[in-house]
Specification:
- The complex is a heterodimer of chains A (353) and B (221).
- With 353 residues, chain A is α/β, with parallel strands linked by helices.
- Chain A is 40% helix and 19% strand.
- In chain A, the strands form three sheets. Chain A has a seven-stranded mixed β-sheet with strand order 3-2-4-5-7-6-12, sandwiched between helices. Chain A has a five-stranded mixed β-sheet with strand order 9-11-10-13-14, sandwiched between helices. In chain A, strands 1-8 form a two-stranded antiparallel sheet.
- The radius of gyration of chain A is 21 Å and the shape is globular.
- The N and C termini of chain A lie far apart (50 Å).
- Chain B is built from nine helices and eight strands.
- Chain B is globular, with a radius of gyration of 16 Å.
- Classes of the chains: A alpha/beta (353), B alpha/beta (221).
- Chains A and B meet through strand 1, helix 2 and strand 8 of A and loops of B.
Chain lengths: 353, 221
């Protein structure tokens, strides 16, 4: 491969997964993420991997469950309606403490919605999505390069903490093409003594299961898992700050919304308005610290989202409502322009809403 | 640039190689030579990034756009335009055909391939880009070429080297891909008919590359 290659975000995810050692991909086509499956279909047979187009999203996620239980790095991908179908399986994976990487290239909803980009699966992704008390680590790339970087990171996190990790992308970043460098240091996957790979008549059976008939045991299992979540919140939270040090108006945005917001911040600065941007890269765990810090000196925060206002709840919690938090949004597949955001910044700077 | 148009110019290739941009630009050139010109969008793979994006520019240039009613409509339905048969029935028409990516996209040609072959006044050009991950060298590119030919039921007659890195493309990027273009030509036995570059790079590359095609890129945003 040349130093840099020109890739769609979806292709970057697929190639990065292969670099991370994923040899088991199970999927079902849906726009706007089908390129992941198409890329895997071409590459996997050449490197001794398995590409399998399942009969449904539900089948695909349960194949990931099985492959992961057998100790291999496994991935599936879909877009919003397909992720809803996978949610039962994701809950089982979380309940069985298995690593898995799940990609959601979000599209407009609810229901069948449309094929244009969206960020309206934020609640679903950050609150678990399926039933029961669990979380996924949720990573939100804002460029094609980050699609690759965060995919490799996702496999490492999934193995380290034995839990599902979601790449929460959107139709724009999945479809857009940008040059990508694949100059990564790949860490070897950790040993998996819990994997169901045969006892060799040398040890007791490993059992992978999410069923606990004894409620006290299930309670303890939940307590233990949430202790792990506390460690993750402490060690694995990721975010980027842009011109926030002296900012009076702070934007909160992730993924494609953050790219547009960055332009709006620069435009506002040109007008003499001190604007800044906090870009969460993990949305679970949510980066509370930079918002708490910003609330000490800014006059208001604007949450820029491709949803009716989902992340805004986490932003309000993070700054403990010490400053007003307003929403600047487009939905249904529409994307805010830098000018729309700039208008919101101007209004906030005047003290309006 | 020296290029002699046949009545039909078919553009196929790996998806993301730049077929649609090359197609729109070749149609504009074709229109400078002929009155009755059409651009046909026969993409049945990708619902985004279609020749339909250039509808206004094409209309202003007097070029008919033949495309499915569903192109760019967000109706994610692989469909061919009903006007498809004009391409083979009306032999007074000159046209550029923009075919969807890979072998899956080339399946769209199946219906009209026999008529195109029977008339035998066409070029079928493969658009290649060495910076795409699945076509970094001659071997992988020719592999995809053979898959496309099998699906189309037609053989390629030439190559268009459109190697680019999107917005990061420089004159150096284009120059560094020339050897790749020659290698694909040698391995496939096909002539390298054109090398493409974005219009802003044309002045610095003109005279250094044979048959250089400057491209006005379709607007992104």
């Amino acid at each position: 491969m040349a130093d840099k290659v020109l890739m769609k975000g979806n292709e970057a995810i697929a190639e990065a997964a292969i670099m991370a050692g994923c040899r088991h991909y199970f999927g079902y086509p849906i726009t706007p993420q089908t390129e992941i499956a198409a890329y895997m279909a071409k590459r996997m047979p050449k490197i001794g991997g398995t590409f399998l187009q399942a009969e449904s999203e539900i089948a695909a996620i349960n194949m990931v469950y099985g492959a992961s239980a057998a100790g291999v790095r496994a991935m599936t991908s879909s877009s919003s309606p397909g992720i809803s179908l996978k949610s039962e399986g994701i809950s089982y994976i979380a309940g069985s403490d298995l690593p898995a990487v799940i990609v959601n290239a979000q599209r407009g909803g609810p229901g069948l919605g449309g094929i244009q980009p969206s960020q309206s699966d934020y609640f679903q992704a950050t609150r678990g999505g399926g039933h029961g008390d669990y979380h996924m680590i949720v990573l939100t790339p804002a460029s094609v390069q980050e699609m690759a970087e965060l995919t490799i990171h996702a496999f490492d996190l999934a193995d380290e903490y034995r839990m599902p990790v979601m790449i929460l992308a959107d139709g724009t970043i999945g479809q857009m093409m940008e040059p990508v460098s694949f100059d990564f240091d790949i860490k070897p996957a950790p040993e998996k003594p819990w994997a169901t790979v045969g006892t060799g008549m040398k040890r007791p059976h490993n059992v992978v299961n999410s069923l606990y008939l004894n409620p006290a045991e299930l309670e303890q299992n939940n307590f233990d898992r949430f202790k792990r979540y506390e460690i993750i919140a402490e060690k694995e939270t990721m975010y980027e700050e842009f011109m926030t040090d002296d900012a009076d108006i702070v934007l909160a945005a992730f993924g494609i919304a953050a790219r547009v917001s960055r332009n709006a911040v620069l435009a506002a600065r040109k007008e003499g308005i001190k604007a800044g941007l906090i870009r969460p890269i993990t949305v679970w765990p949510f980066p509370k610290a930079p918002f708490a810090k910003a609330a000490d000196h800014c006059s208001s925060i604007i949450s820029v989202e491709l949803s009716m206002g989902q992340m805004i709840e986490d932003v309000k919690l993070a700054c403990e409502c010490r400053v007003p938090v307003t929403l600047c949004n487009r939905v249904g597949g529409m994307i805010p322009t830098p000018n729309q955001i700039l208008d919101a910044i101007r209004a906030a700077a005047k003290g309006g809403k | 640039m020296e290029y002699t148009f046949k009545r039909l110019t078919l553009l196929c290739g790996h998806y993301g190689s730049g077929k649609t941009n090359v197609a729109v630009n070749l149609a504009m050139r074709l229109r400078q030579q002929y009155e009755k010109v059409a651009l046909a969008d026969l993409d049945i793979v990708n619902p985004y990034f279609r020749a339909e994006d250039s509808r206004k520019e094409l209309a202003a240039a007097g070029i008919d756009l033949i495309c499915s009613a569903y192109a760019n409509s967000n109706v994610d339905l692989p469909a061919l335009p009903q006007e498809l048969y004009r391409l083979t029935d009306d032999r007074s028409l000159h046209a550029v055909l923009d075919i969807g990516g890979d072998d899956r996209g080339a399946l769209a040609l199946g219906r009209i391939a026999p008529a195109i072959l029977e008339e035998n006044d066409y070029d079928m050009l493969m658009v290649i880009n060495r910076f795409r991950p699945l076509t970094p060298d001659a071997e992988s590119t020719v592999e995809i070429m053979r898959e496309i030919e099998q699906a189309a039921g037609m053989r390629f007659t030439g190559l268009v080297n459109d190697s680019n890195l999107g917005r990061e493309t420089t004159a150096e990027t284009v120059l560094s891909s020339l050897a790749y273009g020659e290698e694909v030509a040698a391995l496939s036995g096909l002539p390298l008919k054109l090398t493409a570059c974005a219009q802003p790079l044309y002045p610095s590359l003109e005279g250094r590359i044979k048959n250089l095609l400057p491209l006005d890129l379709q607007s992104t945003f």
